[in-house]
Amino acid sequence: MRHPEEYIEALVAVRDQFYDVAKRAFGLDPLMRTALDQACRLFTNSHPSLPELLAKYTHVLMTQSAKYASDECIEKRVEYVSVVFCLLDDKDVFKAMYSKLLSKRLIQGGAMSMDVELSLIQKLRDICGCEFVSKLQKMFSDKIISTNAHLAYTTWKEERDQLGSSTVECWFDVLTAGVWPIPTPTQDIELKLPAVCQQQMHLYATFYGTQSTGRRLHWVHHMSHGVLRMVLTSRSFEVHANYHQLVMLLLYNTRDSCSVNELETLTGFSKTDIQYHMQPLVKVLPKYTQLSAPKAKAAATSHELSDDRKMTMQAAIVRIMKARRESSFANLLSESAQMLAMQFVPTPAFLQQNLDILVDKEYIRLAPQQLEHADSATPPAASRSHAAVYIYVA
């Protein structure tokens, strides 16, 4: 959907319309309110991509908040986000998408107002608790610490007469590993960096070593970006580019042309990366339909989310079984749904899948009476029903 804000605001309008009817006609009777909440949850989650739409709506709100007339308009739309989020079943999907877009805003400086960002996170915390937003809050803490470190770094360079050693102005963000949704590709280690980049990285690493003992910096180059001043004939331009583009453009300080094979040798980038990142810099006639970029990132996010859900589901089962020692499938489904209500709604098939995994890991086992009734010609997992009883053994 091209304009997620239209869909989200339409959802809220429909919800508010029927709440107004229930308030005027029934005085918002508790039974009526419960029925209305269930109905709103049903039609809200009918769109399979709602978590993604809500995350994109939030991103547009945070990056383009200047287009709204007043702070009241912004606060009203932040409230829209919290209303739809309350009705959302797959809250963990929204969190995964939201955290990726938030990291992009914080790293690239796209956030229009940090106060608005923190206001929304506070609303998410009120709904789902501290654990749900702990990593999001840590991301803001890292950004604040990096800002203070930059000021200390500038002072440190002044004391050592290093300010004039380079015409390049750099800003370094030090991010906590495991908190930010940032992949760390192994090919970064093999990249051939320009001398000016190596000099600045070495200088900051020296400074960081004086401030934090026992910590090691791991450079995530693919998240870097910058501004280049280019002089072409008699005109100059400022080019906002990502890291790959910066490295390749700097090569043209010493040459007028460069083939793809030469770029691959000089930078260490793959041909796929070179073509992907150079395409926006090349002026071509749009005679052909431009295809959208591969959905590799979306597939990677879906895979990560699936793994996270499995671990969360298994942890919930173990907690329940540790407290109950013995429980039926139906009780496990009911209790796990209550425990995970603020993240996602587990299905019976998903619960069974993770129960089988925990049986294989010997955390739990089927009750003896279940094994007696199991068909000896088939594996136990294939003969289990929703009436099965499990025992905690770990």
UniProtKB/TrEMBL annotation:
Belongs to the cullin family. InterPro entries: Cullin, Cullin-like_AB, Cullin_homology, Cullin_homology_sf, Cullin_N, Cullin_neddylation_domain, WH-like_DNA-bd_sf, WH_DNA-bd_sf. It comes from Aphanomyces astaci. GO terms for biological process: ubiquitin-dependent protein catabolic process. This is Cullin family profile domain-containing protein. GO terms for molecular function: ubiquitin protein ligase binding. It comes from the Eukaryota. Residues 49-282 form the Cullin family profile domain.
